Amino acid sequence: MDLNQKIIDALNRVVAGKEDYVYDENFCRYVKNGHPSCLWGHVLVDLGIPAAHLETAYHSTAIQIVLHEEFAGTPDLVDIERAAAASQRAQDGRLETSGDRVERKTWGRARDIYIETIARLN
After folding, report:
1. Is-contact 80 74, C-beta < 8 A?
2. Closest Cα partner for 4 from 74, 62, 105?
3. Which residues contact 52 (CB under 8 A, 6 or more apart)?
4. Which among 66, 114, 110 is positioned nearest to 91, based on CA atoms?
5. How many Å apart are CA 69 and CA 65, to the nearest integer?
């Protein structure tokens, strides 16, 4: 199974039953107090990246960097990174170009943005 499908499967598992949840931190903290915090923290742990590693090595690191370092050499990784970044910005309520704050999106919508973006890029 390719990385993109693994991410979609992980997103679906994490979001199941939490489609309307809105993350309430200022920005995505992958791990907080040893446990996944934001949507992408849950997804990355689901993909097998240890929570402790995310909390120390990737604190305040953009999702593109985490994916690039953890999955280097994966086909279509640039598109996966772009789609994940769009999803993370939606969760955090940030505009792509300016970073200005907008309404935060639900986890269900953030998942859908990943899926829509990756489909458009492929």
Report:
1. yes
2. 74
3. 31, 34
4. 110
5. 6
Where do we find the tokens 């929570």? Answer: 51
pLDDT digits (tens, 9 = 90+) for 29-64: 899 999 999 999 999 999 999 999 888 877 668 888
The amino acid at residue 106 is T
Biggest CA pair distance of the chain: 37
Q: What is the DSSP string of the chain?
A: --HHHHHHHHHHHHHTT-TT----SSS--SEETTEE-SHHHHHHHHTT--HHHHHHHSTT--HHHHHHHHSTT-TTHHHHHHHHHHHHHHHHTB-TTT--B-PPPPHHHHHHHHHHHHHHH-
pTM score, whole prediction:
0.90
Residue ranges covered by each domain of the chain: 3-121
CA 84 to CA 71: how far, in whole Å? 13
